[in-house]
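Entry 14. Ran structure prediction on the chain below.
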Amino acid sequence: MNMRDPVIYRILYTPHYRQGNKWCIYPMYDYAHPLQDAIESITHSMCSLEFENNRPLYDWCRDNVGIEENKKPHQYEFAKIRITRTVMGKRHLIKMVESGIVDGWDDPRMPTLSALRRRGFTPSAIREFILRAGISKVYNNVDIRLLEFCQRDELNAAAKRRIAILEPVPVVITNYPEDKIEYFEVSNNPGDESAGTRKLAFGKYLYIDKSDFEEFPPPKFFRLKPGGEVRLMGAYIIKCEEVIKNDDGSIRELRCSIDPETGGKNPPDGRKIKGTMHWLAKTHADKININLYDYLFTQDDMADIPEGKSFEDYINPESKLEYKDCLLEKGTLELDERFQFVRMGYFIKDSKSGGTFNRIVTLKDGYKV
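Output, structure tokens:
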């Protein structure tokens, strides 16, 4: 059908927006495509599957304009890639932008390259994802967790570790001097000795994460609880002695004591401590904001929407969680790199807000390659 009197260009006596009245011929896509490929020395012109029926017209134009045989380009078709938990169609993406569902084309939840860059995905991880997904003539729905796996695998080996606290709870060490600060040496990356170490400050006033304390803990809760002991990562074993609350019942501070014999080493009496927590000294922490991102949609295959429904019915209301007044290990805010925040995932500083970090991917996932 494409070879039955095809229109290859139109004549229109209207000024061109750039060329003025220089010419009046406006080529159609099927004519311009093979000519441009030949002019630019393209050998393999890769098109999506809907252009398969246009290939005879592509070949006819190519063969009838005097292109040398060894310089003739060839068109190859492949199926567009679809990714779970997102939409790739521009009409859907622009609707999300215009309706305010997302913050713009570079919103870190979007599948655009600008969004992936802002989210923190590296070109090498995206390239690895494309290679693993492969090229096919059949439409396929690639699991978005494969992209996350490729990025996580790369960052696990390369990213330096830092401590961040999502919801800080103050801790006062009752048996530690008021004006004393000491430093514990911790690894920048346990899997890479060449990454070196850094010194972590310890003092009387600390912060731990809210999720690491339970006043009435469930069974097998191995973090901090009244009367319980845990290891502060790389430092002392502490014991919770008292919970101080505000008038509304929220925790104002935890009063704890350290075992001074356990600074970076096991208890001399041989007792076993199951829990280990991350922490920060009050004097050595910067305030930041943290964005935790999840999938934009609640359904895997967004091309398989029941009749009467639209993609808007499957928007994930928790695709972006914002946390204010978080804490970050001092000295990290000035650095522009990707980090693993201990026990939280991999993060990068947001390109539009220097005091905000975006989570790239979580630490673990059940995806199997």
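The domain at 9-78 is CATH 3.40.50.620 (Rossmann fold). Will compare against last week's run tomorrow.
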